[in-house]
Structure formats: C-alpha cells, structure tokens
Amino acid sequence: MQEKVKYIIVGQGLVGTWMSYYLQNKGLSYKIINHSQRPSATSVASGVMNPVTGRRMVQTWMIETVLPFAVDAYTSFQEKVGVPIIKKAAVALIHPSLQMKESFDYRLSHDNVYLQKNDSALWKSFFNTPFGTGEIDSCYWIDLIQFLASGRELLNENYIEDEFEIKDLKLVDDGIEWKNISAEKIIFCDGVHSMQNPYFKALPFAPNKGEALIVAIEDLPAENIYKNNIAIVPWKDNLFWVGSSFEWNYDSTNPSIAFKEKMIASLDSILKLPYQVVDHLVGIRPANTERRPFVGLHPTHPQLAICNGMGTKGCSLAPYFVLQLLNHIELGTEIKKEASIERFYHLLQ
Ligand SMILES: Cc1cc2nc3c(=O)[nH]c(=O)nc-3n(C[C@H](O)[C@H](O)[C@H](O)COP(=O)(O)OP(=O)(O)OC[C@H]3O[C@@H](n4cnc5c(N)ncnc54)[C@H](O)[C@@H]3O)c2cc1C
User: Fold this and answer.
1) Could you identify the atom of ligand 1 that is nearest to the CA of residue 48?
2) Ligand 1, atom 5, residue with closest C-alpha
3) Is residue 134 within 8 Å of 116, Cβ to Cβ?
4) Tens-digit pLDDT profile for residues 40-91
5) What is the three-class DSSP state of 220?
6) Which helix (H) or strand (E) holds 310?
7) In terms of CB atoms within 10 Å, which end of the chain has fewer, N or C?
8) Atom number, ligand 1, closest to the C-alpha of residue 162
C-alpha cells in the first residue's frame, strides 16, 4: 500500500536536517531518505560561522541577515534537543605575515564591524606570534556532529536509511512516487550527489575538495578558534580540527599525504605545544563558481525542488535558505534572486 506524505527530502546533511526541522515545526508530513555511507560534507566540516572572509578580511555575502538568523535558528534547535549545539567563539588571529597584519590594521580603521585589537599575552604562550595577533568577533562554532545526531533523533520514524536512486523516482501529475511512498514534492538536499541528478545536473556545480586533520593538543584553551594560514578549531575534549585545503581540481577524493605534511609543517612553525595527529578527514563541498546557493523549483517539473550549493558557508546559509524555499512553496513568497535557480532556468528547461 502507498504511504502519502507532503514532502520527501533526499539527504540528511546540514540542509536536509534544517529542511526536516522546519517541516516538523510547520506540522507538515515528510519522509527523509539518507544513505549514511555516502560522503557528507557536513560530517567533516569545522562548523565555523565567521562574518569576514579572505585575505582582505571583507564581510561575507548577506552576513548581516544570515548570521543573526542562523544564531537564532541554532539556539532554538539547541533548546529543542536539550544538548549544546552552538557556541560563541572569537577567532584569535595569529597574523601569518606582515602583509596580513597590515591588511588587518587597514580593515580595523575602514568600515570595520567585526575586527578587534587583541594582543593578548595569552596567545604568546601557545603560539609563535612574530607579526602580532588580532581578533574577529561575532564568530560561532556549531557542533555539527551533535547537530546531525540530534537532528536524526528528532526525525524518528520519518527517517529512511536507503540509497536514493533516480530509477526509483516516478513523476506523476500531482506529485511524485518513490518506492511505496507518494508525495506532493521531493526536495533534493543531497549535496554533491545532485550533480548526477538528470533534472538538476545542468546547474553549474563546481565541487571543491577540503581536507582536515584531527589533532590532540593538551592545554590549548578550547574557548577560541585560532587562525593563521590554517584554522585550528575546537572539536571535542582536547581534540582540534586543523585545516583546510580548498581544491577546485583534484584527481582523487581520498585524503592526501601532501595535505597532511603541509598541516604538520604549519603546526610545527606556529604551535608551541606538543600535539598528536589522530585522524585525517576529507569532504567535497557542494560549491559553484558564483559562490551562491541553488534554491528553488524545477521550471518544468514543479514537483521537484533543490536546496544546494552552500559551498564553504553551509552553517550560516542553510537555515535561512531552507526556510526561504519552504515559504516559497507553502506561502508563495520570493526566493532571493541571487540564490534562486530561476537564474539557470534556461539551462534546466
Ligand atoms: C573540509 C571542510 C570544511 C568545511 N568547513 C565549514 C565551516 O567551517 N563552516 C561552514 O559553514 N561550512 C563549512 N564547510 C562547508 C559545509 O560542509 C557545506 O556547505 C555543507 O555541509 C553542505 O551541506 P549539504 O547538506 O548541502 O551536503 P552534505 O553535508 O554533503 O549532505 C548530503 C547528504 O546527502 C546524503 N546522500 C548523498 N547521496 C545520497 C543518495 N544517493 N541517497 C541517499 N542519501 C544521499 C549524504 O549521505 C549526506 O548525508 C566545510 C566543508 C568541508 C569539506
């Protein structure tokens, strides 16, 4: 017998978890299909929401809107599940060069909202700081492993552990059918797997490989995120996430020795504390060259939708754009133009 729901979601990463959370809050019926053996960018990400980016330390796209929205969203999620998910954690900048120090000093006195002077003696006991230090405020750390686990618990019987294959999807007049379930809409939140989806593969995805080491560092305070040429982010207990790489062109999706050696060389040059590498992670970011999300309904099959392309900023972008998509479907509200897939309708038709 066919089971009927309003929505099927494919993928329980950051995007799929937020999708299910908002559907549950709106009292709408859904099922979520996720194959936990499939690679997930969310499970290897450091979980940092940082309002400034790049060597010039400029504000990231839409940060004044998406950051407060995301902080409220993760705080509500945390209250609902009753375990810590979000933590405010300033980024301690250990300037890697004179040029970066000058860039920071320039930004401090020009249109600065988030940067602070911070020449704390504390950092000097943990790091070599020949070019001084600074600070970025209003940064947050999301415990993504806990977020995925708590999200999974909230799903209960709505969760289906299965591989989604396009051959099992049937488009019907008023919706879709997948195996023994029928739904009004199916929303693809399956990260880089959407690149193989015949309905959405024409979107200009540009997947990006990122690696990180998990490193045990005794006595390094876990209240801060540390940034030099590399980022050192609290993970759990005395473990820190150290990374990352950012590769548009790669031959293999495996962890690379070259990356590991590079991180070890960087740690050796800045860290004064002993450390031990305990793990090496790798993931593929669902990115694109425009660095803007892919959100919306398919132009000719409106029973199909996508929420993807979060790139390097999934933590801050996902809650906002997931809700934009649901409100668009349920209430007819607009999706922000730069994120809407309407800009690619000519490719999808
Ligand atoms: C090394 C690294 C560091 C990062 N650091 C940060 C950071 O600090 N801050 C930040 O904001 N972002 C960061 N990101 C980016 C962030 O991880 C992504 O933007 C975000 O996780 C994308 O989420 P998603 O839900 O779209 O995709 P994913 O997390 O990849 O989720 C896709 C889900 O779909 C499932 N799936 C795929 N195919 C199928 C199938 N056929 N059937 C069933 N299920 C399927 C997968 O199992 C997975 O659960 C980082 C990424 C990497 C790689």
Assistant:
1) 8
2) 45
3) yes
4) 999 999 999 999 988 788 889 999 999 999 999 999 999 999 999 999 999 9
5) coil
6) none
7) N
8) 43
Which DSSP symbol is given to 52? E
pLDDT of 222 above 90:
yes
| Residue 234 in tokens | 């609290």
Geometric angle at alpha carbon 139, from 89 and 218, rounded to 5°: 30
Domains in the chain: ranges and CATH: 3-44+145-205+289-348 (3.50.50.60), 90-138+208-285 (3.30.9.10)
**Tokens matching residue 57:** 């330390």
pLDDT of 111 above 80: no
Ligand 1 center to 286 CA (angstroms): 7
CB atoms within 10 A of CB 321: 28
Tokens 């879709």 sit at which residue? 176
Backbone dihedral region for residue 285 (phi beyond 0: left; psi -120 to 50: alpha; all else: beta): beta
Task: Tell me, in angstroms, the distance from the centre of ligand 1 to residue 224's CA.
Answer: 24
Residue 322's Cβ-side half-sphere holds a number of Cα atoms within 13 Å equal to 29
Residue 323 has pLDDT above 90, yes or no: yes
Q: Ligand 1, atom 47: nearest CA belongs to which residue?
A: 38
Residue 319 Cβ inside 6 Å of ligand 1? The answer reads: no
Mean pLDDT over the full length of the chain: 95
In the block, residue with structure tokens 């990356």: 259
pLDDT in tens, 279-304: 999 999 999 988 999 999 999 999 99
Q: Compute the distance from residue 315 Cα to the ligand 1 centre, in Å.
A: 10
Token pair recorded at residue 271: 């860290």
Nearest protein Cα to ligand 1, atom 3:
45
Please report the atom of ligand 1 found closest to the CA of residue 11. Answer: 34
Place of tokens 């591989």: 163
Residue 110, pLDDT score: 86
Mean per-residue pLDDT, 7-29: 97
How many angstroms separate the CA atoms of 279 and 318, rounded? Answer: 27
Lowest mean pLDDT among 55-69, 250-264, 268-282, 323-337: 55-69
Q: Which of 196, 153, 143, 154 is nearest to 10 (CA)?
A: 196
